[in-house]
Amino acid sequence: MSDWNDKIIAEFRANGGQVGGQFAGAPLLLLHTVGAKSGQPRVNPVMYQEVDGGYAVFASKGGAPTNPDWYYNLVAHPQVEAEIGTGTLQMVARVAVGDERERIWSTQKAAYSGFVDYERKTTRQIPVVVLEPAP
Q: At what angle do helices 98-111 and 114-121 cross, to 10 degrees?
């Protein structure tokens, strides 16, 4: 997985935030977190959705039975960075709940059917995380 992510990260940075392959044309950002256990910096490419005041990202992990590591990292250390296009933003992450989560999640599934498949593959509720500008 690390090699796969590294290739996407390199392509993203070389092309001003654009990548090809399965993410061609999709809104993609590079999420910078701090390891929950290691304390080491981590970078993960993730799809996003613009929401009021920020961006939503989805801890789908392709429908795996567990959340991705980056989810645990941002829960432990909510101060994150997001590379979007050629810029980097300082953000604070929070997990969306209730109606807010459902509204964002429904919009994402309607726009990208792969998220419907991810939801079908797992019994867990896929977390929706909102990234808002750091104060």
A: 120
